[in-house]
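Notes from the 1:1 (GR / supervisor)

We went over the backlog. Supervisor wanted to see one worked example end to end before approving the batch request, so GR pasted a single chain during the call. The sequence is below; no edits were made to it. Supervisor asked that the structure be written out right there so they could see what the output format looks like.
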Amino acid sequence: MRYYTLFLLILLISCDSSRVYEDYEDMEEAFWHMDSVKKFSFEITDIEKEYNLLATFRNSSLYPFYNIYFQYSLTDSLDSVVVQQLKEVDLFDPKTGQPKGSGLGDMFDHSVPIIEKYKFSRPGTYNLKFQQQMRLDSLPFIMSVGARVEFVEE
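Structure output shown during the call:
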């Protein structure tokens, strides 16, 4: 199953000219532990362009909440925090319980803009870090977390 999903992801990504970076990390046994910070490193070479940075989540329909709180931070090559914020995202409609995002079966994917039209001040390696901020130490039915960096299309 994982290889099929990976193949589809690679196929979709290869057709995407705005993508600078995209990766995800599967959760062990579908739990996102509070002390598990997901880190994604990417290279910026063109500082003249604007970029959108996104968080991606895959959850099961069995996820016990309608939303998720997470903290993200963007750090530069010196590990200095450039941007940091707590963000809430609805994974399900709070009134109807209907899943949001795109789905296949009981799995749903969400692509969440976190920083839009950002201009990097200098080229180099940057890191996006994500940490769940829910009230549970181990958040069930979060299948994967990822990051995407793309050019702003004109």
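Supervisor's comment: Residues 2-14 form the longest helix (13 residues).
Batch request approved.
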